[in-house]
Automatic annotation (TrEMBL):
Boundaries of every Aminotransferase class I/classII large domain copy: 48-413
EC assignment: 2.6.1.80
Pfam families named in the record: Aminotran_1_2
Co-factor(s): pyridoxal 5'-phosphate
A GO BP annotation: L-tyrosine catabolic process
Name the record gives this protein: nicotianamine aminotransferase
Biological source species: Elaeis guineensis var. tenera (Oil palm)
Family, as annotated: Belongs to the class-I pyridoxal-phosphate-dependent aminotransferase family.
GO molecular function: L-tyrosine-2-oxoglutarate transaminase activity; nicotianamine aminotransferase activity; pyridoxal phosphate binding
Length: 425
């Protein structure tokens, strides 16, 4: 489309059109892809829609957040202390509480000045990609990954290079690929742990190698830890910041996933960098300056944070973890029964699993996108096609829904696959 000379509409020549990046397909998002899958749902079908596409279990009563969190928000609102604009980096008590919360798992202490509040982890990503986008620079992103990174990079003009996560090695980072991809213009690599979309949880040893590699290359690590502590396998959650002495780390997080309140829009950037490299290289100034020209999370949510962090009981976290373990197990076992789908690695964290499609077992399915569209149409089950995450003919399934709906959804997936199976393979 030509954006240079305006557009004709309604018999007139108009002088405006959208930004070229936003007019093209460079910013295709998972939301948009799922929207296209959803469009295949038969209106007023006999069965409820089973959403295995996105990771927002907040609608299910079994995943409801702790009353502690709701009470904290209510008292923050009632106190009338948070009707004001917040400071650019967030209110001090919230930054203190988050610094303490994150320091529990670190060999050094974060200060409140290391914490910047953002509108969810989403805005944290926006901030850091914007800050790093210098002409000619490039960033290393995981494949499969979280496509919001690609979209933000496209919008900011930051070149993306992909390294693979290796399914046969518990989805670990292909570190040789990282070394081969990096050059003098590489600024950072992104590590999402616990992993979306793979459900992987990296070991201490693997994270140590990631840190050494990044340090050798002279790049920082952006650690997306939005699923912090949501682990239910053998590997415990280890924050990347543990290696902050080896390599500067920017830790991104939020309350969206662990507290199951993605609509509250509270996240953070933490400077996990005891050597002060990010300050010296002016990255911290860049973050501050970017936040000065963007909007903040609602002040009353910021006001509620200290109470939410201090008073949420382990019972609540354990209940969510037990539920995720149960649904992840069920998902893994049920996928095993489906001939055309294989799961290379049992999920141990986050809310997702990546599974591989074997098209040679299927009769009239062209690819992952085709399968997702037909599955939505015939079975009212929503699954994200892997191609939206850089993995054609894979599927991303979320198991973070109530167990009986999950069972129903996977049974429907199975009967769909049986119905479309090749008769004589
Ligand atoms: C959900 C998610 C985010 C966004 O988190 P919000 O706090 O809801 O903005 C960022 N990164 C990954 C990997 C996610 O899965």
């Amino acid at each position: 489309m030509d954006n240079s000379g305006g557009r004709r509409a309604g018999g007139r020549q108009w002088r405006f059109g959208p930004n070229d990046v936003l007019a093209g397909s460079a910013t295709v998002s998972i939301r948009e892809v799922l929207g296209r899958v959803m469009a295949n749902i038969q209106e007023d079908g006999p069965r409820p829609v089973i959403p295995l596409g996105h990771g927002d279990p907040s609608v299910f009563p079994c995943f409801r957040t702790t009353p502690v969190a709701g009470d904290a928000v209510v008292s923050a609102v009632r106190s009338a202390k948070y009707n004001c604009y917040a400071p650019t980096i967030g209110v001090l008590p919230a930054r203190c509480a988050i610094a303490e919360y994150l320091s529990l798992d670190l060999p050094y202490k974060l200060s409140p000045d290391d914490i910047f509040l953002t509108g969810g982890c989403t805005q944290a990503i926006e901030v850091i990609i914007s800050v790093l986008s210098r002409p000619g620079a490039n960033i290393l992103l995981p494949r499969p990954g979280f496509p919001f990174y690609e979209s933000r990079c496209a919008f900011s003009g930051l070149e993306v290079r992909h390294f693979n996560l290796v399914p046969e090695r518990s989805w670990e980072v292909d570190l040789e690929a990282v070394e081969a991809l990096a050059d003098e213009n590489t600024v950072a690599m992104v590590v999402i742990n616990p992993g979306n979309p793979c459900g992987s949880v990296f070991t201490y040893q693997h994270l140590a190698k990631v840190a050494e590699t990044a340090s050798k290359l002279g790049i920082m690590v952006i650690a997306d830890e939005v699923y912090d502590h949501l682990t239910f396998g053998e590997n415990p959650f280890v924050p990347m910041g543990v290696f902050g002495e080896v390599v500067p780390v920017l830790t991104l997080g939020s309350i969206s996933k662990r507290w199951v309140v993605p609509g509250w829009r509270l996240g953070w950037i933490a400077i996990s960098d005891p050597n002060g490299v990010l300050k010296e290289t002016k990255i911290v100034d860049g973050i501050l300056n970017f936040l000065n020209i963007s909007s903040d999370p609602a002040t009353f949510i910021q006001g509620a944070i200290p109470h939410i962090i201090e008073f949420t009981k382990d019972d609540f976290f354990n209940k969510i973890i037990d539920l995720l373990r149960q649904t992840a197990d069920m998902c893994y076992e049920k996928i095993k029964e489906i001939e055309c789908i294989t799961c290379p690695h049992k999920p141990e964290g986050s809310m997702f699993v990546m599974v591989k499609l074997n098209l040679s077992h299927l009769e009239d399915i062209n690819d992952d996108v085709d399968l997702c569209h037909k599955l939505a149409k015939e079975e009212s089950v929503i699954i994200a096609p892997g191609s939206a995450l850089g993995m054609k003919n894979w599927l991303r399934i979320t198991f973070a829904i109530d167990p009986s709906s999950l069972e129903d959804g996977l049974d429907r997936l199975k009967s769909f696959c049986q119905r479309h199976a090749k008769q004589n393979k």
